[in-house]
Design brief:
This is Cell surface glycoprotein. By secondary structure, the chain is mainly beta. Helix content is 6%, strand content 39%. The radius of gyration is 20 Å and the shape is globular. It has one domain: YVTN repeat-like/Quinoprotein amine dehydrogenase (Methylamine Dehydrogenase, Chain H, 7 Propeller). The strands form 7 sheets. Strands 17, 18, 19, 20 and 21 form a 5-stranded antiparallel beta sheet that branches. A 4-stranded antiparallel beta sheet has the order 4-3-2-30, with no helix packed on it.
C-alpha cells in the first residue's frame, strides 16, 4: 500500500523548501498521519492541478495547470487566479485542506492569508495575520490554520469553520517572549540570534504526535527551531542557531518518527575565504530529528540523548550545494526525499529509511543521488537559474519546482535571482527536466516561489 492511501499532507518547502523549500504540511494525530508530501485522501494517481504562485512586483496571481490529456510531459494552463483585485500582494506559499477543497495562500506583502475555494477558484476570505505572513497551513483536522508571521515574530492560529467559510484569529505566540520564558537560562537564551530584536518563524510542518516544528530566520545567522504542542498551543522546546541552524524547509516523514529540516546561507562574493570561509562558501545542510524525543539524530543514526549533548558537526548533513532550501517526498517505488540548493541550482535525492546518510561526499554514498540541475541556466550565481520550492504529482511521475525571476522579491538576491521564471517539470525516475512552464513568458517582473499540487476528480479534455 502506498503511503498516499493512508496519509495526506500539504506543503512546507518548505517546503519548503522549503518551501522554503523551500520552502512547509498537514499531519499529526488523525488518519492522515504526518508529513509533507504528495499524499491525498482521494487516492493515488488521477487528475490533478498544479498551482504556481507568481509573487512578482505587480503580478500577484496563481497560474493553474493540469496534465495534457494525450501528450506525456505536457501541461496545459487551465486558469489564472488574479489576486490584485483582492488587495493581495506577494503570494508567497500555498497549502491545501485535507480534502484539497480549500487553499491557504500566505501573502508576505499584504500581511494576510487568503483562503480560496479550489473548485471555483473563488477567494473566500482574506485574514489579516500580520506583516510578512510567510506560510500558512491547515491543521490535520482542518479546524484551524497555523501561520508563520515573520514581521511580527509570531505564530498565529486562525480558527477555521470550512463548512460556513468563517475564519477568525484564535490565538498567537510571541516567539521571542516565549523562548526566553521556556529557556530560562540567560546564557542559553543569548545564543538565540535575534533579527532586529525578534525571533521570527519561517516554515512549519506537523508531526503525527500532536506537534509542529517551526524553523527560525530568515537569515542563517538568525536560525533555530521551536517545537509547538498544537493541543495546548504552547512551545515545548527551542534550539538556537549554535545547535540547530535551520532557517528554511520543514517536512515530517509520512510514517516514521522523523522530521527533516534545511539550513541555507548564500555565498558572499565579498567575504574573505581565509578570514570567513563559511560566509565565502555559503552553507547547504539538512538535519533529521527524532519526533518521539524532539531531539536531533547524529549522522551515525543515534538520537542525541539530551540537548546538552548536541554537537552541531555531528548532526549536520551535506546538501552537496549552496543555500539548501525546499524539499519534498516522492514514491516512484520506494519512498525518497528530494532536496534542492537554491544558489547552485542542484540537489540530492536521499533514502529517508537510512538515518546515517550525510550527503554524496567525494564518492557517491549509497542511498544518495545527485540532481545536476533544475533550471536550464547553470551559470554561477547570480547569473543562473534559482530553484526554490517543489511538490510532486500524485502519481509520483513528476516533481514540480519553482524557478525565480530576475527581480526576486524575497531571499538573498545573490542566491534567489533567476533567469527563467516559471516551473521546471522534473521526471522523478530519471531526475531530468522534461518541461519548463513559463506562464509569464520572459517577463522580468515574474517571480515564482510557492507551488502546490491538488488532486481533483477530473481534468478538462481541452
Amino acid at each position: 500500500m502506498k503511503r498516499r492511501d493512508v496519509v495526506k499532507a500539504a506543503t512546507g518547502g518548505i517546503v519548503l523548501g522549503t518551501v522554503p523549500g523551500s520552502a512547509s504540511g498537514n499531519g499529526g494525530g488523525n488518519e492522515r498521519g504526518q508529513g509533507n508530501g504528495p499524499q491525498n485522501e482521494t487516492g493515488a494517481g488521477g487528475a490533478y492541478e498544479v498551482w504556481a504562485l507568481d509573487q512578482g512586483e505587480g503580478q500577484n496571481k496563481i497560474h493553474v495547470y493540469e496534465p495534457h490529456p494525450r501528450q506525456d510531459d505536457e501541461f496545459v494552463k487551465k486558469q489564472t487566479i488574479p489576486l490584485n483585485p483582492h488587495g493581495i500582494q506577494t503570494p508567497h506559499m500555498v497549502s491545501f485542506s485535507s480534502d484539497d477543497s480549500y487553499a491557504a495562500v500566505a501573502n508576505t506583502g499584504s500581511g494576510n492569508v487568503a483562503v480560496i475555494d479550489t473548485e471555483t477558484k473563488r477567494v473566500v476570505e482574506t485574514i489579516d495575520t500580520g506583516a510578512g505572513s510567510h506560510f500558512a497551513s491547515f491543521s490535520p483536522d482542518d479546524e484551524y490554520l497555523l501561520v508563520d508571521v515573520i514581521g511580527e515574530g509570531e505564530i498565529v492560529r486562525v480558527d477555521a469553520n470550512l463548512k460556513d467559510e468563517e475564519f477568525e484569529i484564535g490565538d498567537d505566540i510571541d516567539i521571542t517572549a516565549k523562548v526566553e520564558e521556556l529557556v530560562g537560562d540567560e546564557d542559553r537564551y543569548a545564543e538565540f540570534e535575534k533579527d532586529d530584536g525578534a525571533l521570527r518563524p519561517i516554515c512549519h510542518d506537523y508531526t503525527g504526535e500532536g506537534h509542529s516544528y517551526h524553523t527560525l530566520g530568515p537569515s542563517y545567522h538568525n536560525a533555530g527551531l521551536v517545537i509547538l504542542n498544537i493541543e495546548t498551543f504552547e512551545l515545548e522546546a527551542a534550539f538556537p542557531p549554535t545547535e540547530v541552524p535551520t532557517n528554511c524547509g520543514t517536512i515530517a516523514h509520512p510514517e516514521r518518527e522523523r522530521f527533516y529540516l534545511t539550513a541555507g546561507l548564500p555565498s558572499d562574493p565579498d567575504a574573505d575565504p581565509d578570514e570567513n570561509p563559511e560566509a565565502a562558501e555559503g552553507v547547504g545542510e539538512w538535519y533529521v530529528f527524532d519526533t518521539s524525543e524532539h531531539l536531533p539524530i547524529n549522522t551515525d543514526g543515534s538520537t542525541v540523548e539530551t540537548k546538552d549533548d548536541i554537537d552541531p558537526e555531528d548532526i549536520a548533513r551535506d546538501s552537496d550545494g549552496v543555500d539548501a532550501h525546499g524539499f519534498w517526498f516522492a514514491e516512484p517505488d520506494d519512498l525518497e526525499l528530494w532536496l534542492l540548493n537554491r544558489e547552485t541550482n542542484d540537489g540530492i535525492v536521499v533514502d529517508p529509511a537510512d538515518d546515517t546518510l550525510t550527503g554524496p561526499g567525494e564518492d557517491d554514498e549509497e542511498g544518495v543521488e545527485t540532481i545536476d540541475e533544475f533550471g536550464p541556466d547553470t551559470s554561477p550565481a547570480p547569473g543562473g537559474d534559482s530553484p526554490d520550492i517543489m511538490w510532486s504529482s500524485p502519481d509520483d511521475e513528476y516533481m514540480f519546482v519553482t524557478l525565480r525571476g530576475p527581480n526576486p522579491l524575497s531571499g538573498d538576491p545573490h542566491a534567489a535571482t533567476g533567469v527563467n521564471p516559471g516551473v521546471a517539470v522534473m521526471d522523478v525516475e530519471t531526475r531530468e527536466r522534461v518541461n519548463l512552464l513559463q506562464p509569464a513568458g520572459d517577463n522580468p517582473d515574474a517571480d515564482f516561489h510557492g507551488i502546490g499540487v491538488r488532486q481533483v476528480d477530473g481534468a478538462s479534455d481541452d
